[in-house]
């Protein structure tokens, strides 16, 4: 068995509480800092989402203006051609559903045009078209859902505006 002389015992007894206090202080500092970082990241993410919502509102208003102008031209107007190649951001595009859930226009997936997709759900079970129609009727317009990224089978979270 290891025997400690009096000097080593006193040294151990004086250093042990000091080390315990230092470790406790470091733990508290680490916990506090991690909590602050988590709150900062959450706030930063929410600010990005709010900015994206604002951008969606603005580009949607511009698209609605294009749509209205093309409709005002009567037979000469072609809103589908006018909206076909308009993109915002890297993956943003416009699509149109009527109030019954029938796709009227989709530049990325033309095979959807003319189909009633009122029952379409995302990977989480959220009814996409119902959610968009409800968001439009409420006036807020924002709706979050999951949908396949163009050119991929991966479903990602998307923010829509109706």
Brief digest:
The chain is mostly helical. It contains three helices and four strands, in the order H-H-E-E-H-E-E. The protein has helices at residues 6-72, 79-84, 128-138; strands at 96-97, 103-105, 142-148, 155-161.
What does this structure look like?
Helices cover 52% and strands 12% of the residues. It is rod-shaped. The strands form two sheets. A two-stranded antiparallel ribbon has the order 1-2. A two-stranded antiparallel ribbon has the order 3-4. The chain has helices at residues 6-72, 79-84, 128-138, and strands at residues 96-97, 103-105, 142-148, 155-161. It has 162 residues and is mainly alpha-helical. The mean pLDDT is 89.
Rg of Cα set = 29 Å
The biggest beta sheet, please? 2 strands, antiparallel
Overall morphology? rod-shaped
Strand tally: 4
- Global structural class: mainly alpha
The percent range for helix content is 40-55%
Order of helices and strands: HHEEHEE
| Strand-residue proportion | 5-15%
Say what oligomer this is.
Answer: single chain
Give average pLDDT, whole number: 89
Compute the number of helices.
Answer: 3
Low-confidence stretches: none
For the termini, the CA-CA separation is: 78 Å
Which strand order does the major sheet show?
1-2
């Amino acid at each position: 068995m290891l025997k400690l002389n009096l000097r080593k015992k006193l040294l151990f007894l004086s250093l042990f509480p000091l080390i315990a206090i230092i470790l406790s202080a470091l733990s508290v500092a680490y916990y506090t800092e991690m909590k602050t970082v988590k709150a900062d990241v959450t706030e930063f993410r929410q600010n990005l989402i709010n900015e994206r919502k604002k951008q969606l509102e603005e580009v949607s208003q511009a698209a609605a203006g294009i749509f209205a102008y093309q409709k005002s031209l009567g037979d000469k107007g072609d809103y589908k051609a006018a909206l076909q190649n308009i993109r915002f951001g890297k993956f943003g595009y416009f699509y149109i559903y009527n109030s019954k859930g029938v796709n009227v226009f989709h530049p990325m997936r033309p095979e959807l045009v003319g189909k009633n997709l009122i029952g379409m759900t995302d990977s989480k079970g959220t009814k996409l078209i119902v959610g968009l129609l409800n968001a439009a009727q409420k006036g807020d317009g924002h709706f979050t859902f999951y949908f396949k990224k163009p050119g991929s089978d991966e479903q990602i979270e998307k923010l829509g505006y109706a």
